[in-house]
Design goal:
By secondary structure, this protein is mainly beta. Helices cover 8% and strands 38% of the residues. The chain has 2 helices and 14 strands; from the N terminus they run αβββββββββαβββββ. The protein has a 4-stranded antiparallel β-sheet, with no helix packed on it. A 4-stranded antiparallel β-sheet has the order 5-6-8-9. Strand 11 and strand 12 form a beta hairpin. It is globular and about 50 Å long. The protein starts with 5 loop residues before the first helix and ends in a 6-residue tail after the last strand.
C-alpha cells in the first residue's frame, strides 16, 4: 500500500480543488472533467440533460460508460473509481450575497442512490460572518478528492471536513444542525 505524505496530499488537493479566486463568476463549465488519477471522466450531455461518467483506456479513447447522473451542473468533480460525482455550488467557493443559509454547497451523487446535499449552514457555523469580496461571500477555501476515496472540504471559517465517498458519510469534522 502506498503512503502519501501531507505535502503530496495537499498538492493533490490543490490540483483538484478549483475554487474561484477572483470576485467574478467562474468560467463557463468544461464539457469534460476527469478524476484526479485521470482514468475516469464526466462529460456534460446537454441534449440528454445528464452527465455521463465514463472510463478511458491508456490511449485516451473512451473505453466504457459507467453511468449517467440526471443533472447538468456547472461545476463537478469525479472520484478516481467513477462512483462518486460531486456537484459544487455554481459560484464555486463564492456565494451570492442573497444566498440563504440552507443553500446546497456540495451534493454527492452515486448511481442508484438519492443525492446527498451538504448545506452551507451544516459546514459553516456563522454564514453571516463569512469573508466578503466586492460582490460575494467566500464560503470555502479548498475542496476536492484526496486520491484515497475521500472528499475534503475546508471552509473559509477554517473548519475541515472529510467525507467517505463510498458512503457519503462524514469521517472527520462535525456538521452543524441546520
Amino acid at each position: 500500500m502506498r503512503h502519501v505524505s501531507a505535502a503530496q496530499m495537499l498538492g493533490l488537493m490543490l490540483l483538484t480543488a478549483t475554487p474561484a479566486l477572483a470576485d467574478a463568476p467562474p468560467a463557463p463549465p468544461q464539457a469534460t472533467v476527469c478524476s484526479l488519477n485521470g482514468k475516469v471522466c464526466v462529460t456534460r450531455e446537454p441534449d440528454r440533460h445528464a452527465m455521463l461518467i465514463w472510463r478511458h483506456d491508456s490511449s485516451g479513447a473512451r473505453k466504457s460508460e459507467l453511468w449517467r447522473a440526471p443533472l447538468l451542473a456547472s461545476s463537478v468533480q469525479i472520484s478516481d473509481d467513477g462512483q462518486t460525482l460531486v456537484e459544487i455550488y455554481p459560484g464555486a467557493n463564492l456565494l451570492e450575497m442573497s444566498a440563504p443559509a440552507d443553500t446546497a454547497v456540495l451534493t454527492f451523487h452515486r448511481r442508484a442512490r438519492p443525492p446527498v446535499a451538504i448545506r452551507l449552514n451544516q459546514v459553516v457555523a456563522h454564514p453571516s460572518t463569512l469573508p466578503l469580496t466586492v460582490s460575494h461571500r467566500q464560503w470555502a477555501s479548498t475542496y476536492g478528492f484526496d486520491g484515497a476515496q475521500r472528499y475534503v472540504l475546508e471552509t473559509a471559517e477554517g473548519r475541515r471536513f472529510l467525507f467517505d465517498c463510498m458512503t457519503e458519510r462524514l469521517i472527520e469534522g462535525r456538521l452543524e444542525k441546520p
